[in-house]
Design brief:
alpha+beta, Glutamine Phosphoribosylpyrophosphate, subunit 1, domain 1, Alpha-Beta Plaits, 2 domains, 7-stranded antiparallel beta sheet, 5-stranded antiparallel beta sheet, 16 strands, globular
Length: 298
């Protein structure tokens, strides 16, 4: 049992409040998953710049002097913004692959949480309220975001086991459920060039969607393909640079509710996650149907 939330803003005036709104939604879902929590925020990005979000169990050591060391490796002046156990490093987009490789060479103990022009991912072990406070998430702005609070059932409680999982540029996924064919699918995806950080089935789902989109599918088409290629029970909420999508398996035993107004589209594992959103009393509210894809793009 895990808790999922998602918020896709149509009204630009709400963008400064995205972090606060999404954080409140996530904290409401605490009792669905007290082990770990995470949020992906799609914010603004500078032209020709990309962000690399990293995590360290020993940030004082790993983050000390990282910007200078990275500049010596790739040139330029990488910007490093520290947030507790995470750091967001901004580099020219044409140097992002070089920078990623350099970071892992310079600081082999760090883990890369996500890479993209606008995405930032923050996740840690602990209650949602503690994770929100640790990373000051309520002050973040953006166009859309997704969050997850986890109750581990098939793997250890670790930062890397927390959601969201990101396996492609500006792409991430959160999941409630369990996949039965994730080992076979992981082998197929590795053969196709995908790499994995964990044994978590959710990372396989994220990689499946990233790989499908890398082969030319749009978000909606990639979500449709999960219904034929992934076995098990699942609710996926997915973010891309411009999009936000939801799909449930054909049995749809995991709870889910959505709401839409002229200002936003919202998702929650339970209605109480949506109850304090502005204008919710006038929203279209519905339970997403089994085996039906919903997605929106800016």
């Amino acid at each position: 049992m895990c808790g999922i939330v998602g918020l896709f803003l149509k009204d630009k005036s709400l963008e400064p409040k995205l972090g606060a709104m999404l954080s409140e939604m996530l904290i409401t879902m605490t009792d669905r998953g007290p082990d770990s929590a995470g949020i992906a925020i799609y914010g603004s990005g500078e032209t020709k710049k990309s962000k690399i979000t990293i995590q360290s169990a020993d940030p004082e050591t790993d983050f000390a002097g990282l910007g200078k060391a990275l500049a010596e490796k790739i040139g330029g002046k990488p910007e490093v913004v520290l947030k507790s156990t995470h750091a967001v490093i901004e580099v020219p987009t044409d140097k992002v692959t070089e920078a990623r490789e350099a970071i892992l060479e310079l600081r082999p103990a760090v883990r890369i949480m996500g890479v993209g022009e606008v995405i930032e991912i923050f996740k840690e072990v602990g209650l949602p309220a503690d994770v929100v406070k640790r990373f000051d998430l309520t002050k973040m702005s953006g166009t859309h975001g997704i969050g997850h609070t986890r109750m581990a059932t098939e793997s250890a409680v670790t930062t890397m086991g927390a959601h969201p999982f990101s396996t492609g540029p500006d792409e991430c996924l959160v999941h409630n459920g369990s996949l039965s064919n994730h080992n076979n699918m992981r082998r197929e995806l590795k053969h196709d060039g995908m790499s994995f950080e964990t044994e978590n089935d959710t990372e396989v789902a994220a990689a499946f969607i990233s790989n499908t989109m890398a082969h030319g599918a749009n978000l909606g088409e990639a979500l449709e393909k999960t219904l034929t290629d992934l076995d098990g029970f699942f609710t996926f909420v997915v973010g891309t640079k411009n999009g936000f999508g939801v799909v449930r398996d054909p049995i749809a035993c995991k709870p889910a509710v959505m709401a839409e107004t002229d200002q936003y589209v919202a998702f929650g594992s339970e209605y109480r996650a949506l109850a304090n959103l502005p204008g919710i009393e006038n929203a279209k509210v519905w339970e997403p149907e089994p085996a039906k894809v919903y997605f929106w793009e800016h």
